[in-house]
Amino acid sequence: MLKSLFNRAARPSYLPEKPIIMVSTIGDDDNRGDSHAYMGLARVVAEKLGGEYRHINDNTITAAYPTLQARDRALHEYFNDNGVPDILFSRFYHSPQLWYPVYTEKQDDLFITKCPHIITAMNESLTKKANGEDVLVSHHLTPSLLKAEGDKLLEAYPKIKDAPLITVMMADNTNYELAEALIPRLKDLPQSTLFICSGRRTDGNHFNELMNSMAHEIGKHGVQNRVRVMGYDFQKEIQRPNTLNPYMGLIAQSDHIVICGDSRSIVSEALSAQRSLYMYQGAYSNHIEEMYSPLLRDRIILPLNKRDAATPLATHPVCIRNPTEQTADRIIKDYKRNCRRQLGMVRGTLAYVMEG
User: Fold this and answer.
1) Is 170 strand, coil or helix?
2) Residue 80's Cα: distance from chain center in Å?
3) What is the pLDDT averaged over residues 26-54?
4) Cα dihedral sign, 138-142-233-302
5) CA-based torsion, 125, 131, 137, 138: positive or negative
6) pLDDT tens digit string along 213-237?
7) 85-103: per-residue pLDDT in tens?
8) What is the pTM of this model?
């Protein structure tokens, strides 16, 4: 109780008592790395400000207002019914007209319009503004979330408990010779499970090609009885309701993760879980080497290529800094500055009217 009274006394007058921190993925994809970052940042911001975290998406709006076809009109009604957020994370610009009829405050016969503190920047930009670099970015993974998703994965795929788990994360379609670089590294293992996980930037044809090339290399090296191959075709499975997306569970349970393509989100999330991380250097090796050079130089990420195909996979878990909290602190700083500015504008307007 004393702590609650202290927090109330210490809270500046320009801050709401319990701000609403909202993530909107309306018109977007909940599976995007940027969406995950917004969720993680919003939760941290809400916790630090003593606020309330909310997340809305297309399903939220459609379920609440099935007869309203216009998205802005449905949003308007949602905010009328549930309150306007104080901080809104959304990749899409929302017109000020959306807020005007629903978020006004009467002071001395004046109606003062307030808008949320809206964050539309990409994850990399937010992280760079707060931390000075953008190799590692914010995310939403926590130990409790990883544990829950890892348990779901083991329930859905019980056989992966029987052997070391190597996961290939397909960040894009650059998988030309990955099988030739990876399978020889597994031939000395008595048993292993290889899980191919495609993503939203991967098309089904490339997923099938990679699965086939893995099967070909496994046969070529005669390890059919020692390497079990599983896969998840994102573009196909996402259309099926109630199907588990194994992505987070794989991060939780994998012994090694190989990233195929460029994704700061996957890199950051895998390293936050202290997984052994490899970066496949294929068609865009120069681009990838340049972008992730600090992590490759310090051996936080190890390169994977055909040149070293005879070298077994090494376990090299590392503990790295999570930029999410520092980025959230910068967002709170900007939000407080915006609140003070809005309060100053209100006071200035009221003073002008009184003098007039």
Assistant:
1) strand
2) 29
3) 91
4) positive
5) negative
6) 999 999 999 999 999 999 999 988 8
7) 899 998 875 555 555 444 4
8) 0.79
Q: Who has greater pLDDT, 210 or 114?
A: 210
CATH of domain 143-308: 3.40.50.720
Mean pLDDT, rounded, of the chain = 81
Number of CB atoms found within 10 A of residue 120's CB: 14
The closest of 246, 219, 90, 229 to 159, measured between CA atoms, is: 229
- DSSP secondary structure code for residue 88 in this structure: E
Q: Which amino acid is at 45?
A: V
Give the angle subtended at the CA of 185 by the CAs of 184 and 191, to the nearest 5°. Answer: 100
**Distance separating alpha carbons of residues 291 and 296, to the nearest angstrom:** 10
Instruction: Give the DSSP letter string of 281-329.
Output: -STTHHHHHHHTHHHHHTTSSEEE-GGGTTSPP---------THHHHHH
Average pLDDT for 10-20: 80
Residue 239: predicted pLDDT: 82
Within 10 A of 348 (CB to CB), how many other CB atoms are there? 10
Q: Report helix, strand or coil for 91.
A: coil
Pair of tokens at residue 52: 């309330």
Q: Which of 191, 196, 260 is nearest to 228 (CA)?
A: 191
Determine the Cα–Cα distance for residues 50 and 246; give it in Å rounded to an integer: 32
CA 55 to the chain's CA centroid: 14
Question: Where exactly are the structural domains of the chain?
Answer: 14-134+325-355, 143-308
pLDDT > 70 in the chain, percent: 83
User: How far, rounded to the nearest angstrom, does the alpha carbon of residue 184 sit from its chain's CA centroid?
Assistant: 32
Mean pLDDT of 173-182: 82
Closest CA to 264 of 135, 129, 132, 130: 135
Specify whether the CB–CB gap between 193 and 164 falls below 8 A.
Answer: yes
- Other beta carbons within 10 angstroms of residue 52's beta carbon come to 14
pLDDT for the residue numbered 114: 56
In whole angstroms, how far apart are CA 311 and each of 226, 261, 318? 18, 21, 20
Of the CA atoms within 13 Å of residue 139, those in its CB half-sphere come to 26
Q: What is the pLDDT of residue 241?
A: 78
